[in-house]
Amino acid sequence: MDIVKKYCYQIILSISVMLAGILVSSCGKDPIFIHGDYIYEHEDFTKIDYVNGIIVNWADDIEISEEQRTVILNLIDNMVKVEGGNFLMGAQNSNAQSDNYDLEARDDERPVHEVILNNYYIGRYEITQREWRTVMEYDLDWPEVYGNGDDIPAYNVSRSDAIRFLEKLSAMTRLSFQLPSEAQWEFAARGGNYSHNYRYSGSNYTDNVAWHKNNAGNMPHPVGEKQPNELGLYDMSGNLWEWCLDSYKPYPDTPQDNPVSMGGNLFVLRGGSWTYLPSYCRVTCRDTFEGNAASVSVGFRVSVTVDS
Q1: Three-state secondary structure along the chain?
Q2: Is the pTM above the cut of 0.85?
Q3: What is the pLDDT of residues 49-102, one digit of tens each?
């Protein structure tokens, strides 16, 4: 019976993909994100869209505007598929001859431990104010002095706010959007299976890839202005701290398979920000914040796991 069910599921999935290819709308050119300009016109309503290898099965019990569909499709098109693999997570400052040595590594970045991850998608950019506004249909507190614009990342986002965004996005698309786990975040920031083992996400020089306290001019910057990392991800070092799925806990000293730590009121932040010094932009640096708290230096990016 299980074999029959699996066979039927594969047939249904194949038909869905074919329908997606038929029903997907197209404006005759690839969708492009250039500093807030979303170059993708969703010309006709379709029940199913297929973009970036992901099937979007639009909810029929939620009113979804044309602008929302357009912005969401661009958000999905600007996600990067991260092929799973093994990596050594964390850093240590006690043995220069051993793995993941970093003189600036802090106590909570060790022990260095092996992690196995499956495939997943992660946002190429931090969620922008336009994306937040369009999906949620309201603005957060974005003072002009700290930047207010379509391509500025959404800051002053509590973890609870981010979860509400992800729940609404998931309900609209019938996909399971979530915050990246801490392990997913670090693996992606390192460049995944293409990693060059840089200290920061895409470089050993912070100014190449990160907006931080010494160069940001006291404000966050539009997404995608610095160099990307090996996977084509932007601002994983600097600009805004980013919420992860995990609660803040000490690292284990044994190998982990797709780990997620939950329990408690403190949650993991990663990546550093425009209010912090460059050392906090390292790919292994961890910070923590209460889930209901918000800050002008904190935002998020999305992840999703789909069958592949």
Answers
A1: CHHHHHHHHHHHHHHHHHHHHHHCCCCCCCCEEECCEEECCCCCCCCEEEECCEEEECCCCCCCCHHHHHHHHHHHHCEEEECCEEEEECCECCCCCCCCECCCCCHHHCCCEEEEECCEEEECCCCEHHHHHHHHCCCCCCCHHHCCCCCCECCCCCHHHHHHHHHHHHHHHCCCEECCCHHHHHHHHHCHHHCCCCCECCECCHHHHCCCCCCCCCCCCCCCCCCCCCCCCCCCCCCCEEEEEEECCCCCCCCEECCCCCCCCEEEEECCCCCCCHHHHCCCCEEEEECCCCCCCEECCCEECCCC
A2: yes
A3: 999 999 999 999 999 999 999 999 999 999 999 999 999 999 999 999 999 999
